[in-house]
């Protein structure tokens, strides 16, 4: 499966901020065990490339790199075995490098003007960020009017509590969020708690 087909199937992308790559294998086990074998590992920490490499090498987990801001980070993500890259905003240089490296790319947009710039680059699936701050589900519905062919992956402020509001919007392919992988649980190696949060999210997505 390509990145976006898989994301459309799982409908939820756990966003990971990992401080210590030693936690990657327990985290991967929790994601797979909880029923969401997908992760966006953000380049906000130095551990990200090593964590991506460990998680991707399992072969049963779709691993992307998040918070990718530069072409050099695209290279790091590709070298680590990531399948897709996510950016908070739209950078033509990042999009082009991702394509050169054979990675799916998911740039962030928040306005109609940014969406038009993304369309000019031939993109048709976009991150909507920071979703809850820029209008949430009603904003996505409004943007889906003029941009009918586009799909969005809203991220930023999505939680178990508002998941159904997002996933019931037809233009929403999937959502992203960090609520399933709390920093404290990861630091404490509480993989059981993470697995439970992932399973609850997966179950909620199934009934929408
Ligand atoms: C992201 O990295 O895309 C967001 O910061 C995640 O947002 P959240 O922490 O509100 O889920």
Describe the protein's architecture and organization.
The structure is a single chain. The chain is an alpha/beta fold and 208 residues long. It has a single domain, classed as Alpha-Beta Barrel (TIM Barrel). Helices cover 44% and strands 16% of the residues. The protein is built from ten helices and nine strands. The strands form two sheets. Strands 5-4-3-2-1-9 form a six-stranded parallel beta sheet. Helix 5 links the parallel strand 4 and strand 5. Helix 2 crosses helix 3, helix 2 packs parallel to helix 10 and helix 3 packs parallel to helix 4. The longest helix is centred in the C-terminal third of the chain and has 16 residues. The protein starts with a helix and ends with a helix. The site of 3-phosphoglyceric acid (3PG) has 12 residues, from strand 9.
Summarize the structure.
With 208 residues, the chain is α/β, with parallel strands linked by helices. It contains ten helices and nine strands.
> How many separate domains?
1
Structural class: alpha/beta
> Helix tally?
10
Small-molecule binders:
3-phosphoglyceric acid
| Known CATH architecture | Alpha-Beta Barrel
CATH topology: TIM Barrel
The N- and C-terminal alpha carbons lie at a distance of 23 Å
Regarding quaternary structure, how should these chains be classified? single chain
């Amino acid at each position: 499966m390509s990145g976006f087909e898989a994301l459309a199937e799982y409908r939820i992308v756990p966003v990971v901020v990992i401080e210590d790559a030693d936690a990657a294998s327990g985290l991967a086990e929790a994601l797979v065990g909880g029923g969401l074998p997908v992760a966006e590992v953000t380049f906000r920490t130095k551990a990200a490339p090593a964590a991506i490499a460990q998680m991707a090498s399992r072969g049963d987990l779709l691993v992307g790199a998040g918070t990718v801001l530069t072409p050099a980070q695209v290279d790091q993500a590709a070298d680590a075995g990531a399948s897709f890259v996510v950016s908070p905003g739209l950078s033509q240089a990042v999009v082009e490098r991702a394509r050169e490296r054979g990675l799916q790319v998911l740039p962030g947009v928040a306005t109609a003007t940014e969406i038009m710039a993304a369309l000019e680059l031939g993109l048709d699936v976009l991150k909507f960020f920071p979703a809850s701050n820029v209008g949430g589900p009603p904003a996505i519905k409004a943007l889906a009017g003029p941009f009918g062919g586009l799909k969005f992956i809203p991220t930023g402020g999505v939680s178990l509590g508002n998941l159904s509001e997002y996933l019931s919007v037809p233009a929403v392919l999937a959502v992203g969020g960090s609520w399933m992988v709390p920093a404290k649980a990861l630091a404490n190696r509480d993989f059981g708690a993470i697995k439970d949060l992932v399973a609850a999210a997966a179950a909620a997505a199934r009934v929408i």
